[in-house]
Every structure is written in structure tokens, then in C-alpha cells.
Automatic annotation (TrEMBL):
InterPro entries listed in its UniProt record: AAA+_ATPase (IPR003593), ABC_AA/LPS_Transport (IPR051120), ABC_transporter-like_ATP-bd (IPR003439), ABC_transporter-like_CS (IPR017871), P-loop_NTPase (IPR027417)
Keywords: ATP-binding, Nucleotide-binding, Transport
UniProt-listed Pfam families: ABC_tran (PF00005)
SMART domains in the cross-refs: AAA
Phylogenetic classification of the source organism: Bacteria, Bacillati, Bacillota, Bacilli, Bacillales
Domain of life: Bacteria
Gene Ontology MF terms: ATP binding; ATP hydrolysis activity
Name of the protein in its database record: Amino acid/amide ABC transporter ATP-binding protein 1 (HAAT family)
PANTHER family associated with the record: CONSERVED COMPONENT OF ABC TRANSPORTER FOR NATURAL AMINO ACIDS-RELATED, HIGH-AFFINITY BRANCHED-CHAIN AMINO ACID TRANSPORT ATP-BINDING PROTEIN
Amino acid sequence: MSLLKVENISKSFKTLQVLYNVSLEVKPGERHVIIGPNGAGKTTLFNCITNLLPIDSGSIYLDGKEISKLSPHHLVHLGMSRTFQKNNLFGDLTVEENLHLALVAKKSYRYNIFSPLASRSDIKKETNRILDQWEISSRRHIKVKNLSYGEQRLLEVLLAMASNPKILLLDEPTSGMSPAETAQTSEMIQKLPRSIALVVIEHDMEVVFAIADRITVLHHGEVILSGSPEEVRNNEMVKEIYFGGGAKQHA
Ligand SMILES: Nc1ncnc2c1ncn2[C@@H]1O[C@H](COP(=O)(O)OP(=O)(O)OP(=O)(O)O)[C@@H](O)[C@H]1O
């Protein structure tokens, strides 16, 4: 069974229709990449899947359960997490403190004057585990605003993972990165555990083909193809619409 099933969703902003009967399916553990020219509707699709925007019609299922009316917060608890194109971090807090807050949000602790959050041993333990796992313990006391742009975007992915999702939606994880940061991010995405399915919006074709099991191509709000990387690479319409539009194609 599909983990995520998007069935015929449409979305308009007043008179501008942005998504037309979009359908896609993501299997557990799959790396599913969404490509398409600027303005194709990719971020809108993410905003609809995570219910930051209500859909006009269609249905969305997570693990067979209809989720299109559930709040973004509820969706996190059901195992769906996401990052945004713009960074969502607390710049004046350290790496460790940002991680700490993400873990607290996951556990929905209430503030208790007799049990300060910072002293909760389960949160401390989990923070240390993540810092060690991703080899960033030495950066733990650095304020996030002093990290490089690439490091900040990587930290965002780790924070989104703190909720222990079944499916993680990454919106252009390499946007604005240097080639070295892009390569590092691509490598990190490939190292994410297969227990997590990924849906990734990505423009860099080298990254797309490095990570994708399956690719969905959006054009003017319509899915023109959903298939294997080979099918997408060899599809004439995709070549013309997407690669012909000046995007970088992997050799
Ligand atoms: N909140 C909004 N109100 C009105 N129009 C919007 C809104 N959000 C997006 N749009 C419009 O919807 C269309 C699709 O935008 P969207 O950001 O989903 O595209 P995209 O494929 O993610 O583009 P990019 O690759 O440039 O990020 C664009 O024409 C955009 O201007």
C-alpha cells in the first residue's frame, strides 16, 4: 500500500488555477523527487499536502487515512514532517537549543516550573544522539546565525527529522547553496534512513538523479509524467519542457 496517496487534487488562488487534478503515490521508504519549471506549482503542492493551504477538490491519504482536513500539527503527529524553502531556525539560539526545541515540540511537553525542559533527561539524551549521529557535536554551542548557509539548511533537515517522521517533505534543500554544500546535502539525503520516505522538490538535476527512486514532473500545475529516473530522462516531452528551459541536465 502507498504511504502517501494524493488523488486528483486541484487548487486555485482566486482566478489563478495552480494545480489541476494532481495525483501521486509514495511508497514507504521511497525517494520521490518532484521537478518542474519555476511556477509549476511544486511548493503549492507541498502546502496542500501539509494542509497549510486547503485543497479545492481531491483527497490525500497517509497510510490509508484521509488527511486533507487535518491540521499541520496533527500531521506531524501522524508522521509527516517538512522543511521550507526559507529557513525556519532560531538564529540567536545554539544548534543544541534549536534541536532541543524541535524535540520538545515533538513530545508536546507543557512548561512546568518544577521540571525545566532543559533538564529533561530524555530530551538531553535524544539531542546528544542526533548530534553524535550526524557528527555535529563539535558545533553544538554555536549560535545558528553563525553557521554557514549550507549548515543551517542541513540543520533544518535534522530538526524536521526530530519528530521521527515516516515521511519527510524537503522543499528545495539545496537552493542557494554552493556546489560543495550541494554535494554535501545530496550525500546527507542519501544517508537518511530508509525507514523514512522522502518527497523532495529539487531543481539541481545532478541531485535529482542521485537521490530519486521515482520522479514526478509538474508543468503548469499538471503531472505530465511520474516514473523512474530513466523514464524521465528519456521522455521527449520532459526533455523539451524541462531540460529545454535552461535547467542543468545530468550527463
Ligand atoms: N499564496 C498565493 N497566492 C497567490 N498565488 C500564489 C500563491 N502561492 C503561489 N502562487 C502562485 O502559484 C503559482 C505556483 O507557485 P509555486 O510556488 O507553487 O511554484 P513552484 O513550482 O514551487 O515554483 P519555484 O520553483 O519557483 O519555487 C505561481 O504562479 C505563484 O505565483
